[in-house]
Write a structure and sequence with these properties.
With 327 residues, this protein is an alpha/beta fold. The chain has eight helices and 14 strands. The chain folds into two domains: 199 residues, Formyl transferase, N-terminal domain (Rossmann fold, 3-Layer(aba) Sandwich), CATH 3.40.50; 115 residues, Methionyl-tRNA Fmet Formyltransferase, Chain A, domain 2 (Roll). The radius of gyration is 23 Å and the shape is elongated.
Amino acid sequence: MKIVMMGTGTFAEPTFAALIAGGENVVGLVTQPDRETGRRTGASRQVGEGMATIAAAHGIPVIQPANLNSPEGLAELQALAPDLVVVAAYGQILKPDVIATPSLGMINVHASLLPKYRGAAPVAYAIWKGETQSGVTIIRITPGLDSGAMLAQESLKIQPHETAGELETRLAPLGAKLCLNVVQQLKIGPVTGTSQDATLVTKAPKLTKEMGEIDWTKSTDEVACHIRAMQPWPTAYTFFHRRGKEPMRVMICDTVPFPMRSVPDAPPGTIFTDDKFPKSFFVRCGQDRSVLEILALQPAGKKRQTTSEFLRGYPIQDGYRFGPEVA
């Protein structure tokens, strides 16, 4: 069986490595051009060793079309004459002509418990929406977005303070294991799989920079989940408002919900300190009157700081708050 791997970034790397280590006949790699691998500003995919680097180390041909669906991109894939294409975080919607190229079809390593979180950012959305479980599903690729039959699925527990990047790192080897199992089954014969329940479908569209802005009117738990979900990209941000100064953009890097008996009667986003915790500060969140302890943050143009480091440069005063740039 001739296999072509198709993917980009650290989520795809363990699957590619597992196929090679398992002795599979990997005849080519399709990966995004270097500008799409996470090295440029604004890219959301984490980068590790590099898919092309892994391929070069094993003498595997690499193609990097800007658009695989173009006639030129399709011709490059067809020239590899694959029986099966394995896809993991490739980053392009594939058209029917591309999907029809391998004789045994295409399978996708998708980082969610489908039918939940179809789309480009399933890991981030699982954390953002407060899920306690995530996982990987191996599906057949069809023209519909992540709608193909499920060939394998396995779940794992989301850790309480885990970011999207950290969860993706744990999901990647799970995806590799499941994918290798499915490939072995396909070598024996057809694998039917299970249809997805259309009534349970939720979407996880591509993240944008604007999605990182924090809404302090949400509950403490919702804000904390949002901040974790936005890492490593686009990162959660807000604006620091001080009397007599322009709002300052601040990235919120690490937080924890904090149980406090007496919460100030103030609007969401209000910043306050507590004499019992001199190296910390807290933010009033939404209607549940809960608070969020800030553990690390990054003022615009500066390096990431601990809370105590931030407080040395910006001592908190009454009336200071986080919120939108324009109130």
